[in-house]
Design brief:
The protein is mainly alpha-helical. It is built from five helices and no strands. The protein has one domain (about 1-90). The protein is flat.
Length: about 90
Amino acid sequence: MLNNLSDKQSLVRADVIASVDKWAEQIGPEQVITQIGAAIALENPEMRAEGIKWILDHQDSIKDADCVSIVKPLVSCLTDKVKDIRDKTE
């Protein structure tokens, strides 16, 4: 499901985010945050932007999450020279 965050169609990405929100309601956002780490590790601007936006929307749950899986991908996103990613998450 998270792989569809890279879809070029914004409606598909919105449906994935809605599904991820439902998933988070059932298992807890902290569990989803650890799974999103793998998605944002891929060098895809859409996937990274949507994944980071979702994490930011649920940042209160970060304290309960195992953040080891998102540290490297987040650092990679921050050092990525593709400005498009930073524009989409602001």
